[in-house]
């Protein structure tokens, strides 16, 4: 009986130590493990010009502009507090649209424009049939 | 629990339970799949590819649930020395790895049309891939165990330590900016419309029952192997 209690105590201590170590590691990783910078993060971190990063947020409604060359687009990515103009030359995924999530890979140009060389669409956690599409998905929440 | 430490008593329950779980699971999966493929509406943005969810979500749940089971069994083995815990943990490992792989594969197939990429190193995907590698490590350690049908203490400790990855997978989309969307189904409710959601419950329960049946089958096979070994040993001595 005594040996069993000893093992139980040892097991619990080990578990607490493992969870503690995990949480410590996670909090240290908090910035490094982020998949993308939001416009606010990018401003706060002061990302230098030319450094390759990913920028994620919502595409501002009405901001998508097609350049005359036909393959370049401009749009604005926002996270409700900051916004960044983005330029991209290439083919965007089908789900890339205004008021929807986006992750752009690229770097900041000297004029503060984010020059993307790859665009990924970010789907949010809301799923609904087409007839319900309406005001429901236009809340523009950034995750 | 120690009432079932006796393999004979365990087998008496496990045998009929295997059939119930197996057939019940198969029926639920069949109904859920037909509903998910033909009866539910497509999503307003994703279109038809939303249907991958009916396999992807149960696979993710069983990949993570499987390791949670291994961790609980490992704790029971280390603390209470329950004789069946090692057999159970070993039985869970291979189907757990299989469903984790299924989750990664279906996620990748969904990611291509939705996100525009097969694979990205974001928090959710990376931690799920780590889980698959943990399963591979566990299976290798279990196979290297001297214990017949069960697993060594080192394997059990590995099963316990590896559990740290489970809350990380679960929280990865909340803690870090990730490409993978946040949780749709939380304690507060679901952000999936009920017309799309309902077959998911059927397939999740169905795959879970099937998983249970596979684990019970594997446990019975392990116990039978132990008995064969013991009998051969007795015959050799006689």
UniProtKB/TrEMBL annotation, chain A:
Chain residues that bind heme: 123, 127
Domain of life of the organism encoding this protein: Bacteria
Keyword list, A-Z: Cell membrane, Cytochrome c-type biogenesis, Heme, Iron, Membrane, Metal-binding, Signal-anchor, Transmembrane, Transmembrane helix
A GO cellular-component term linked to this record: plasma membrane
Function text: Heme chaperone required for the biogenesis of c-type cytochromes. Transiently binds heme delivered by CcmC and transfers the heme to apo-cytochromes in a process facilitated by CcmF and CcmH.
Protein family according to the UniProt entry: Belongs to the CcmE/CycJ family.
Name of protein: Cytochrome c-type biogenesis protein CcmE
UniProtKB/TrEMBL annotation, chain B:
Gene: ccmC
GO molecular function terms noted in the UniProt entry: heme binding; heme transmembrane transporter activity
Gene Ontology BP annotations: cytochrome complex assembly
Family in the record: Belongs to the CcmC/CycZ/HelC family.
Domain Cytochrome c assembly protein: 27-180
TM ranges: 20-39, 59-80, 92-111, 123-142, 154-176, 196-217
Organism the protein comes from: Sphingomonas cavernae
NCBIfam families (alphabetical): ccmC
Protein name: Heme exporter protein C
GO cellular component, one term: plasma membrane
The entry's keywords: Cell inner membrane, Cell membrane, Cytochrome c-type biogenesis, Membrane, Transmembrane, Transmembrane helix, Transport
PANTHER family attached to this UniProt entry: CYTOCHROME B_B6 PROTEIN-RELATED (PTHR30071:SF1), HEME EXPORTER PROTEIN C (PTHR30071)
Location(s), subcellular: Cell inner membrane; Membrane
Cell division as UniProt keyword: no
């Amino acid at each position: 009986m005594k040996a069993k209690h000893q093992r139980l105590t040892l097991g619990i201590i080990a578990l607490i130590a493992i969870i503690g170590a995990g949480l410590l590691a996670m909090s240290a990783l908090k910035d490094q493990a982020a998949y993308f910078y939001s416009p606010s993060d990018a401003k706060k971190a002061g990302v230098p010009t030319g450094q390759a990063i990913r920028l994620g947020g919502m595409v501002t409604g009405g901001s998508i502009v097609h350049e005359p060359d036909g393959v370049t687009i401009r749009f604005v990515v926002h996270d409700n507090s900051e916004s960044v103009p983005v330029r991209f030359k290439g083919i965007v995924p089908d789900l890339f649209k205004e008021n929807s999530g986006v992750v752009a890979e690229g770097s900041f140009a000297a004029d503060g424009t984010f020059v993307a060389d790859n665009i990924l669409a970010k789907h949010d956690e809301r799923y609904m049939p087409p007839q319900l599409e309406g005001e429901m998905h236009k809340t523009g929440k950034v995750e | 629990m120690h009432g079932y430490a006796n393999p004979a008593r365990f087998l008496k329950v496990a045998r009929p339970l295997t059939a119930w779980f197996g057939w019940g699971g198969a029926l639920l999966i069949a109904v859920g799949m037909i509903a998910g493929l033909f009866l539910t509406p497509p999503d307003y943005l994703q279109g038809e590819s939303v249907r991958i969810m009916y396999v992807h979500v149960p696979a993710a749940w069983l990949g993570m649930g499987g390791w949670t089971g291994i961790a609980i069994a490992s704790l029971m083995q280390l603390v209470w020395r329950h004789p069946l815990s090692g057999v159970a943990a070993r039985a869970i490992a291979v189907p757990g790895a299989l469903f984790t792989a299924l989750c990664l594969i279906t996620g990748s197939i969904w990611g291509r049309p939705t996100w525009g990429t097969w694979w990205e190193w974001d928090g959710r995907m990376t931690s799920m891939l780590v889980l698959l590698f943990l399963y591979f490590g566990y299976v290798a350690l279990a196979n290297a165990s001297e214990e017949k049908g069960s697993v060594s203490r080192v394997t059990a400790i590995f099963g316990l330590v590896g559990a740290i990855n489970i809350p990380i997978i679960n929280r990865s989309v909340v803690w870090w900016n990730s490409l993978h969307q946040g949780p749709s189904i939380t304690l507060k409710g679901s952000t999936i419309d009920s017309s799309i959601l309902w077959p998911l419950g059927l397939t999740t329960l169905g795959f879970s029952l099937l998983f249970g049946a596979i684990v019970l089958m594997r446990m019975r096979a392990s116990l039978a192997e132990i008995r064969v070994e013991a009998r051969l040993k007795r015959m050799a001595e006689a």
